[in-house]
Structure formats: structure tokens, C-alpha cells
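Worked example

This section walks through a single chain of length 407. The input is the sequence exactly as stored; nothing has been trimmed or padded.
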Amino acid sequence: MKISNQNGRITWQRLAALLMFVSLLWSGTVESAPAEKGRGSVYEVQGVESSVPVSGKGGAEAQHNAAVLGAQQEGLQRLFKRILTGSEREARKEFLSTLLKDAKRLSERVMVRSEKQVGEKMNLIVDVIFSKKEVGEALVKESVPFCEVAHPSVLLVSKEEGGGVFQKALQSAARDYGISMLLPLGDMEDLTHLAWERVAKGDAEVLTWASSRYGASDAWVIGVETAPVTARKGQPFFRVTATLVVSRPQTASVTLKAVEEKGGTNQEAAQAVAYPVLANKLIQQVMDRWIQDHSMQPGLKHQTRLRVIHEAQLARLTEFVNGLRGISGVKNPQVLSSSARESVYEFEYHGRDEVLQEALRKLAAHMESTPEGLTLWLFAPKNPAAPAPKEANSPAPVAADPPKSWL
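Given that input, the structure is written out below as C-alpha cells.
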């Protein structure tokens, strides 16, 4: 739909059509962009393994159902790792145990990828999609902060040769936490560009190259060191130290460490016991940081007002609305008023103010905050400091006493 300006004025018919279009965007009758539909979800837990003993009780159907239920419960525990920090899971252990008993109801869809009998066991590999609505409502009811933003895929670079055993342990832990991990191809192009020293320092050129080639926004460098310590009870003991350097464009690299002391008949035996524990510790540290930065805080609820200046560019407005809907924590958006040049929205937001503002900045050309709310320009503004025009029928703000941290 194209809106024309005749003698400097927009006709009432075209203005009515614009308002109707904006209403359709918010009522959900206009479809989201394909990229939004195809985006991965933390609620999709794939490749869950489950096994039950083969017995005569109840027959094959009962055994199948028992194995599926086991997969649903295991999948729900993996989901908790993706959306809750380690400390939150520990503090809410009793509540989460009650949710595990309700895993079947919280599951939206179950897809059995493999089912076969091995010896006296029936083994299943299952994909489980959990209900975002049911899980979210259960957590919000108990005021549990949680994260719905999937961690981006990462490119893993090993610091030392021969680190394949620990690398596999890290990959296994990452799968449980929903992190897709990619490995370098090791060809001449990688050897030329992908020096681990430059990745560890967060070299912008290297990170940009790695992102372009592998599609991973993060690059990780891992290293492991093992040293003997005082023997205990006549058995050799070793201190195993694992280091993980996380590099991300436009942010400083972060170094994480984990240490385990394990005994064994030799160094390799001690490492075999220590590696899975170390891998889980490192991935947990990564996820704790990610979840804290992207958490929905049920106790931090804002009624947010947003003025969007779109200059009647409906394609750009549609793109913005789709992006706004994809921001974690944005709930119940409504159109308060609209004109051919701008629209005013209001929505409920659960989460940290700075996270919302950063997400909005990425959707607009310019943003300004005022005591009344936020103003976004979808195109570069001619006069960004100009005050918002007053509208006779504009309703008063609904929010009362927002937290002081807001704006």
C-alpha cells in the first residue's frame, strides 16, 4: 500500500487505511518474517536418550510409554539448564522436582527418532518440544527469573594439540545446555587466519572472519593443564586445570577456569574422570553469564510506553514490529495512538531495563529516552531533539511508580 501526499496533506481514507494496517500488525493477522518463524527455541530439546528394562508387565506399549516419560523428564532437566542459572536451580530444587513429575503435561510434542531393543533394555532417542506457555507460567507464578533466549552457536578452537578428549567432553556438556558447537575445518584458510592467540585476544578481524565463514558469533579457545600433586592413600593424584576464553565481537574477551583434583592409576585415568566435571563447570559459568544478561525477571515488571516514528514507511514498520515481538520479555503490546508519521505503543516488559534498551537500539536508527518513555526513529531523524506532538485523545500512562532503575 502506498500513501501519497496531496498538497501537503494525507487524505482521511489513506490515514484510516494506515491505522487499520497498524492494528492488523498488532492483532497478529500479519504474519511474521520467515526468519522469525524459523528461529531455534530453547524449548526444543533434541536427542534425549531413554531406556527401560524389557519385561512382560504391561507389554510393549507400556514399556514404550515408560521410556517416553523418562525422556520427557530428562529433557525437562536439560531445559532447566538452558533457562535457569546453576544457583537458581539449586535454590529451587524442591519446586523444580514437582515440575519434573509434571513433565508429560508440560510437553507440547514428542518425536521418537529411534526405538530398538538392546539385550534386556528398550532404548529410545527422542526429541521433546516443551510448552513455552505452560513452563513460563509455572516459573512466573513462583517468581523464578528465567531466560528464553537461546545461546548463539560457537566456534571452538583448541589451544593445545591432542586436546581431543577434553574437547569431546566440552561438546557433550554444551549439547545438554543447548549450545551448538562448531569445530574448525583445519584447512589452509583456517591455518592462515585462525590463530588461537588472536582469537583469545578477541581480535576483531579474526572474529569477523570466523563469523563470516562459520556463522558463529562467539569463538572459544580451550586449554588443559595437568600436574601431579601429593599422593593420597598410596594413590597418585593430579590437579587438572581447564581454561576457556570466550571472545565475542565488540566485547572484551572473558577467561574462565575450573580446577579438579582426581586420583587414578596414571595421569590419563585421572583426566578421564576430571574432564566431564570440568567441562560441565565451564559451560555452567558461560550459561550463568548468558542467562543473567537475558533473564525475564517476574518481579521486575514494567509498563513501557514507546513512541515510534516511521514516516509512513510500512515495510520498515512491519520489520520493526516483528523484531519487537521477538524481544524476550515483551508482553501484551497495544497501539495507543497512531498517525501517518508515528505510532505510540505500550507493552508489559519483564526484565532488565538496559537489556530492553539495547535490543531496541538494534531495531532503530536512533533512540532517545525521556521521563515519559522511549522514542525511536526507524530512519535517521532530521531533528531528534524535537518534542513529541501533543495529541488531544492520547490516554494517560498506565504505569504507576515504575522501579527507579527504569529510564
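What to look for: DSSP finds 14 helices and 15 strands in the chain.
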